[in-house]
Design brief:
heterodimer, A: 9-stranded mixed sheet, B: mainly alpha, 29 helices, 79% helix, 0% strand, disordered N terminus, disordered C terminus
Chain lengths: 332, 663
């Protein structure tokens, strides 16, 4: 018995050594560049290809839908899209897994690290759309109670906004964890009788808003512009204490101290540095990509509420608005 | 996961049960006394030092710093450090190359070749009925216009399953041959399986970046454990008599392994393969969050525009793939296990059957090429998204509220939240920390040994040390509530199904779908029905955990010795009496296993709960992934593991069963 056990042990040790040797052999064949790995499903045969990152909100999908259609049909590229959350997308961009982000809502930490320090990402300028985050209530409710649109009167309405999740307080609904939010600090610093309830994903938040609207129930939600849902459920913004640079500066040091509204953000494009400097048609085209909130919402709504696929919506918009996109094409 | 039940080891023999219980009671009394004395000494001490009821901050460790530095280090060194350049980079390349090769092969075969090949293999291995299922399944994924994503997922799955099987078999071989390795391996495998997949998506992404390599490795981590466990189990369970005989014939260790131990374990090996495939497929959707492409990505993207119909169109092929693969490997396992004599005409046996499969596949491929299209013809598709969405709208409109007498789903959800979840959460968070530790220690010790009690208590204490006591108690309250609902429904339906073969047959496909349907698909419907919050999270957990509980219950009740039931009936017992006094007590081990599986599966949905407003730990894990916050996500993930460990020890009375989640 003891002999077999020793033998087993030798055998196990042998297997381990073999595994080690295999790894060594693998590593012996030189350096592997982790920044140069595309998707295995990318088009084969030397076709020019671009990879775009898509974020979960529909506005970002609209940008990509149009860019993808034009890249494929006007510039003859193959386009891959990857759906990722914002911060992982920055990471992917710096590694070259993704060539471009077409809509960023402001990530100063990431910008510092990748654009300024490591220089693996290059800023690509604005995409023409201005983003705005705020608190909103449905129009049908605000029409009945016009004073609800000022934060000072919100406490009066807390009991109308109670749900089983918010307990004895009013419910302020927040969405996906990846979105920029100071709502907890705001509720505390403005002494509001509200509980922040996180829906956990934008899909859940939209579903809930639609459900409230169907029953004409009052609600208060964190939301942002541009957004297609406004076309389905008209909402009115609640005025928060005015945004100021001093307040933002204070908030940078201590996020818990913020007591003013969200800033208005011109949405930015970012490119992988190598892609941006490579001088390709695709890079030139994406740098020129610049449209308006109305343009974006038109595409968003086709995708989100008319049941069209992103590709169909991109095509439909492109066919309707040649005057907008002709300017984006690189000069020959 | 379905096959989990068959490997469950039974507890103490039923005949000894009543005697055991009597002994337990008197010993239980003694245990309680010991604990009471310990509490009397320790609680005043703890109270004097940290008077607060929540976990004292002196006893926590803050991992934000070290974990934050780790993730910074990885990002800064990823492109230059030898570990990445010479090892992980190659690993990543190898994954991309192999997945690409398989994908190209599938595209080369075209839709005719792939469909013919899979159908023929299923026929050869598992018979006509399963072959027909395979044929229909592939046709359906084509009709739903999901052919390319299906091929991408299939390519990823093939490589992931092969890698998982190799890794799992090697680990299992080590564990099966060496007692010491087995002891080291077991807790590692436990952790791999209980750690929510979301928690390790983030570290994997940090190292490999988003994309297929990260997705594949996360899948292997998740899917390899069942293979490892079942391989070890098979090797260790080999009949000693046979081994003795082989040794006496002068076989060397290797010969013994190859000619006796492995062949004897082939049933377990196949079951392991089956479980690995199912686990890998269940990761297909989760992995799409880090860019795995394929069907999972379609489901995930459809969710972003709140389109249940489109999500379902992509989810159906996943379910069908799972069913085909499950049935095929399960049927192969049964045939092998039965040592069946060769059946059917000679033409269908041996190597020429395989040659026939190959030839026919090639013929189908050529035919497809000649007909022109290697991808499913675009004219032969049906768009189901709109009707499905209409149906969902209709359902929600009619069930959400104002249904006469019973009230709407929104009302139920509100009541469930305020009558069950709130008191439970408030109670658990108000419970002083030492009180919680004592309760867990007492429960675990009463049903187990002092060792199980120690593990359970330490697991709970670890949650406090990690500084996530409050969210963990919140999560615990949701898990307990969902578990209670699952068990009530599961035992009820299971008992009915055990009494009626027809009901069981009707239930089977429903349960299959519930088990394999990606959880992301019912994210929107549960919110639409139950409103954002903890109630839809509980609903999602019940949907996911119910099938396993029903199946284990049904099977456990069916396996009760018919003699015992017959004698009860002959003594004039009614059906209800027989059930209560004979069948249920005798099926106790199976029922306990059902409880245990319920715990594990409910915990697996905690994260999905975070996506629909469940908050607490699930939300933290999701946030960690979305914000790239390693500390937040990983700590919450570990807390979920600790909760799982604690609940496992508190619900599992006998010596360790052989397998954990899914295996």
């Amino acid at each position: 018995m003891s002999r077999t056990r020793t033998r087993t042990r030798i055998r196990v040790a042998g297997a381990a050594a073999l595994a080690g040797a295999t790894l060594l052999a693998l590593s012996g064949c030189g350096k592997a560049d982790m920044t140069k790995q595309g998707s295995p499903f990318q088009a084969a045969g030397g076709q020019r290809s671009v990879t775009l990152s898509v974020q979960t909100w529909v506005g970002a999908q609209a940008n990509v839908a149009v860019a993808k259609y034009l890249l494929e049909h006007e510039l003859k590229y193959h386009v891959d899209t990857v759906q990722v959350d914002e911060i992982p997308a920055w990471d992917a961009l710096s590694q070259g897994r993704v060539d471009a982000i077409l809509e960023d809502w402001g990530h100063p930490d990431q910008e510092q690290r990748y654009v300024k320090d490591k220089k693996t990402i290059t800023a690509g300028g604005g995409n023409g759309v201005t983003g705005h985050i705020g608190w909103w209530v449905p129009k049908y409710w605000a029409d009945k109670h016009p004073d609800v649109t000022d934060w000072k009167n919100l406490n009066k309405y807390a009991d109308q906004l109670r749900t089983s999740e918010s307990g004895s307080k009013g419910q302020l609904m927040d969405g996906s964890p990846s979105y920029v939010t100071n709502d907890k600090a705001l509720v505390k610093n403005l002494k509001l009788d509200y509980e922040v309830v996180f829906a956990g994903s934008e899909a859940a938040q939209i579903t809930q808003i639609q459900q409230f609207a169907k029953q004409q129930k009052p609600f208060l939600t964190y939301w942002y512009e541009p957004q297609w849902l406004f076309n389905q459920v008209p909402m009115v913004e609640v005025k928060l204490p005015e945004y100021s640079d001093a307040c933002a500066e204070k908030g940078k040091k201590d996020p818990d101290s913020i007591d003013c509204a969200y800033p208005t953000t011109p949405l930015q494009k970012f490119f992988n540095t190598e892609f941006a400097k490579g001088g390709s048609d695709a890079a030139a085209f994406l740098k020129n990509f610049h449209w308006t909130k109305e343009n974006q919402n038109e595409v968003s709504e086709m995708i989100a509420s008319k049941g069209m696929s992103a590709d169909e919506a991109g095509k439909a918009w492109v066919e309707k608005h040649p005057e907008v996109w002709k300017k984006w094409l690189p000069k020959k | 996961m379905t096959a989990a039940t068959t490997t469950a080891s039974t507890a103490a023999a039923p005949a000894r049960q009543s005697a055991l219980q009597a002994a337990l009671q008197s010993r239980g009394l003694r245990k309680i006394l010991v604990l009471a004395v310990a509490a009397a000494v320790l609680v005043p001490l703890a109270h004097a030092k940290w008077s607060s009821g929540t976990w004292p901050s002196d006893l926590t460790v803050d991992l934000n710093g070290p974990l934050g530095r780790t993730s910074d280090w990885i990002i800064d060194n990823r492109d230059s450090h030898p570990l990445f350049v010479y090892f992980l980079g190659h690993l990543s390349n190898a994954v991309v190359i192999s997945v690409r090769a398989v994908y190209q092969l599938l595209l080369l075969l075209g839709w005719t070749g792939v469909t013919a090949g899979v159908t023929l293999v299923a026929w050869r291995v598992a018979g006509v009925r399963i072959a027909a299922t395979a044929l229909v399944s592939f046709a359906v994924s084509g009709v739903l216009d999901m052919w390319l994503p299906t091929m991408q997922t299939l390519a990823l799955m093939i490589v992931a399953v092969v890698a998982s099987v190799v890794v799992g078999a090697l680990l299992g071989l080590a564990g099966g041959l060496s007692e010491r390795l087995f002891k080291i391996l077991r807790p590692v495998l436990d952790t791999m399986q209980v750690l929510p997949a979301f928690a390790y998506l983030l570290p994997v992404v940090l190292v490999f970046g988003i994309g297929v390599p990260a997705a594949l490795l996360a899948t292997v981590v998740y899917a390899a454990p069942p293979m490892a466990r079942l391989t070890a189990l098979g090797l260790r369970g080999a009949d000693p008599g046979v081994l003795e005989a082989v040794t006496s014939l002068g076989a060397t260790g290797r010969q013994r392994l190859l000619t006796a131990r492995l062949p004897l374990a082939r049933k377990e090996l196949l079951l392991g393969l089956n479980q690995t495939i199912m686990m890998a497929l269940s990761m297909a959707v989760i992995a799409s969050m880090i860019g795995a492409a394929g069907l999972g990505d379609r489901v995930y993207q459809a969710l972003a525009s709140v389109d249940v119909g489109a999500a379902l169109a992509a989810a159906v092929p996943i379910v069908l793939l799972a069913i085909v693969m499950d049935r095929t490997t399960a049927a192969a396992g049964e045939r092998m296990g039965a040592d069946a004599a060769p059946r059917g005409p000679k033409l269908l046996r041996g190597w020429y059957a395989w040659a026939g499969v190959a030839v026919l596949t090639v013929l189908a491929t050529v035919a497809g090429r000649l007909a022109g299209s290697t991808i499913w013809p675009s004219g032969w598709t049906v768009a189901i998204a709109r009707p499905v969405n209409d149906f969902k709208e209709w359902m929600v409109d009619h069930l959400y509220s104002g249904v006469p007498v019973v009230g709407g789903t929104a009302d139920w959800a509100a009541h469930f939240t305020s009558w069950v979840l709130d008191p439970l959460r408030d109670g658990l968070t108000a419970l002083p920390w030492w009180g919680a530790l004592l309760i867990v220690a007492a429960l675990a010790w009463l049903i187990g040994t002092w060792r199980t009690a120690l593990t359970a208590t330490l697991a709970l204490a670890a949650i406090g040390v990690l500084g996530v006591w409050k969210p963990s108690m919140n999560t615990l309250s949701q898990v307990l509530a969902a578990l209670a609902v699952t068990l009530v429904l599961g035992f009820g339906i299971g008992i009915l199904a055990a009494g009626s073969k027809r009901l069981e047959a009707i239930l089977r496909p429903v349960l299959d779908v519930m088990q394999t349907m990606p959880q992301f698909v019912y994210l929107i419907p549960v919110v639409a029905l139950f409103a954002v919050g903890r109630a839809p999270a509980a609903a999602a957990a019940v949907v996911y955990a119910l099938p396993a509980v029903i199946r284990i219950t049904t099977q456990g009740l069916r396996q009760v010795d018919p003699g015992a039931m017959e004698s009860a009936r002959s003594l004039g017992a009614t059906r209800w009496q027989t059930l209560r006094q004979v069948q249920l007590p005798l099926a106790r081990p199976a029922l306990l296993l059902a409880v245990n599986q319920g715990v594990v599966l409910v915990l697996a949905v905690v994260i999905i709960g975070g996506l629909v407003g469940g908050g607490a730990l699930g939300y933290d894990v999701v946030t960690g992934l979305a914000k790239g916050d390693l500390a937040l996500g990983l700590v919450a993930g570990v807390a979920i593991v600790c909760l799982g460990l604690m609940l496992d020890r508190v619900t599992q009375p006998t010596q360790r069963r052989t397998t954990g989640k899914g295996a």
